[in-house]
Every structure is written in C-alpha cells, then in structure tokens.
Design goal:
- The protein is built from 17 helices and 11 strands.
- The chain is of the alpha+beta class.
- It has 2 domains: about 10-280, no CATH class; about 310-440, no CATH class.
- A 6-stranded antiparallel beta sheet has the order 5-6-7-3-9-10. A 3-stranded antiparallel beta sheet has the order 2-1-8.
- Strand 1 (about 85-90) and strand 2 form a beta hairpin.
- The longest helix has 27 residues, at about 225-250.
- The model has no long low-confidence stretch (mean pLDDT about 90).
Length: about 450
Amino acid sequence: MDAPETKDAFARHMFALAIESYPSYLLPRPRQGSPSFWTSATLPTHQHPSGIDAVGELLRDDSLQHLFPGSPDAESIRSFSDAVDVSSYWTLSNGQGGTQQAVLIIGFILNYAYARLASTGTAPTLARYLDHVRQAIAEVRSLARSEVVLVPQLVGFYNLQLAEGVTVPVADGIFRAPRSGEREVIFPDGGNVHVVLETKFPLKIVEIRPWRRGEELLPIQDDRQSEVFEQSRREAQRRINDARLALLLSSEPGSLASPVEIANVVLSPVTPGGSVSWRAEVSAPTPAATVTAESAARAKDWARTIRTRQAHNLDIGIRRLLSALTTRIDPIDGFVDAVVCWENFFGTQAETTFRVTGAMAWLLEPGDTTKREALQAELKRLYETRSRLVHGSAEPEPAEAAGLRDRAVELATESLRRLYRLPSLLTLKSDTRSRHILLGALQEQQ
C-alpha cells in the first residue's frame, strides 16, 4: 500500500514510517515482563531515512516546532547525530515529565496510534492504522499549542461481570467487556481484567523548557505545578469514582456491584507507553456481581443524576463506601470505612451518635414510627460497635465482621440513594443536613 497523498510534509514522512513499521506490530507479544513494556518500547525509526526527515519537518511545522524551543535549524538535520540534539524538557498534566528527544517522539506517535487501534476492537488493517497515525499527529499538534487533548483512558476492573452483550454508558465513558486487541497490546497478561471502563483523560503539556545533552537534569515538577497535577489527578479519579458509584446505586439488594480497579492506562502520543498503573495480585472483599441489561439501564440513569447533582461535599464518604466494598480485604476495616461514610453524610461535632443514627433512621423510614425506632436502635448498636473497635475492643469472628460490614454498607448505599433523590438536602453540610432531617424536612417534601 502506498502512503496516502498529503501536502503535510511531516505526516508524509510519518506515513512512510508507519507503513514500514506496521508488520512489526502484528507479531505476537511475549507474555512475560512488565505490563507496560511492550507499549513503551519504540521502534528504531531514527535508522530509517524518513525518521531523520521527519525530525526536520517537525522543526519546520508551525505548531510542532514549539515542542523543542531553541533547537538547531531544520536545514541542519542531516543525520542521526544532528537529530538527537533536538531535545527539550517537558512536564505534563498527569505528573509525568522529563527530557524529550524528537527522534523518540516519532516512535511514541506510532506506538500510540497502534494502541488506539487495538482499543477499538476492530480488526487491525494498515488503512485503519494510518487513520490513527493521522489522528495522533493532530493531537500532538494540539499539545504543542498548549491545548488540552482528551486521550484514551482505559481502567481495568476485577470482580464484576457483564451479562452477554451488555454495556453500561456513564457520564464520562462506558463500561464494557475487554477487547482481544487490548489484551494483547494494552493489558498483557490481563486475564484478571473482567470489565473495562473506557473514558478520556485531559492531557496537556504544562511547561516546555529548552534542554541540551550534558546539561543538568531539571526537576520533573516544582511547587508551581504540583497543584495542577493534584487537581488533574483528583478530577480523573472523581470521574472513575462517579462511574463506579452509578453501578453501586443501580445494584440489587444482596448483590452490590463492587468492581476492584486493577489497571489504569492513560494512552499518550508523547510519552513511552503513556501512564500505567497495575496490580499484579488481586483479591476482592465481596462477591462478584453481574450487571444485567436492567441494572445497566438503571446505572445509566444514576450516572446522569450523579453528574447533574454534583455533591462534592460527599466525596470523602463516597470514597470510603467504595473502599469498604473493593479494597478493604479485612471486613473490620470495611465496616469502619462504611460507618465513616455515615459520619460524612450526617455527622456533627456534638451528640454524634444520635444525630447520625437519628437522621439515617428518618431518611430510610420516614413513614413508619415503629420501623424507624427499630432501625435507629440497630444503627446505634452498629455505631457503638465501630467506636469500641477503633478504641481497642476485641474483634469479632470473621463471619460476624463480614455481617457488620455488609449491613453498614447496605445502609450507607440506601442513604446515598435517598439523598440524591432529595437535592435540597444533598448540598447541605453534614450537620445541617442531619438537623434538617430531624426537624421534619422530609415531611415538608412529601
């Protein structure tokens, strides 16, 4: 296949390299080694004439030249030794950073394009690969202009099953089954990845500084940038947590969806392998649930509600609820986390036990005094059990501890459902929320 015709000189050389390198991507990948190794290893494109020519055209490009300020003139790039001096120092919004060389960026773009192709689930063809190379070039140009680019983020989960043919659209992406190409290219040895959340990560080059070989290495980040990185991390994790919460709130009683995050891959056209985190050993504190077509429809509705009625004042409680279900292997730890969730929703500085348990009892049983009193008594027992445990009391047997956790999680989950249906209470501080409930706010809204 001949390279597509284009007036874009940089793209023309990239297409030539892509055609030459495409067969190597079709070779089977070894299953051993780091999961990110085969997405970060780049081909020796600098040994191809088009690789050196591509560096020269990069320096002529109105956008791409901003990636390497102070570099030699494009006309002086005639050999690998010339091209290797085209370098700079970058920091990215995902916290990555370091020295970059133009000869390596060429390979990063090609790797990224094939990883994107693999994540689509379509059969790989050279024409499709070239389409992704074209898109990758456009994204790198946007990054060079200091624009935000939404790159693919693939989060792998364990301990959740999707019924056949079921997908779950959420506000920022979709839960789906892993695709065969992803298992080969993005999640090597990823047999434990049962479900993938496909979403986007807002990538931006925060700063570019001139740098030459032999100069002292600069710190990847400084105080000015730390806030940007932390904000980016929090926003990305909140999107993931909101998607997980939608699954949880849509669950059937006794079978709560509790997917355990074991892989998180942000594909990037300007870094080797993107950003990868991976858990080699996996376990889950609660049984796996299956998402049916009916619960998927409910999850879609819950995702819309969570996005519309953003309740960032409940973030700590939501994180603790999710951790109780997915990361706290010891059921006592899960129980403690679930009760901390209650406190985040309804807690106060004084009379904490009564305010928390009384407000929850009113919220969950607003129409039946007898049931409300019985529930408040149960909540009080659970709350006092948590207090005794954190102050050194003997731990219960594992089966009893699991029962405590499951009941505390169930009550927290149902409380959260009720709060999202009562937006006037959702936005209040925890102590104000509990006071309003105890003083009759629910009756006024009926």
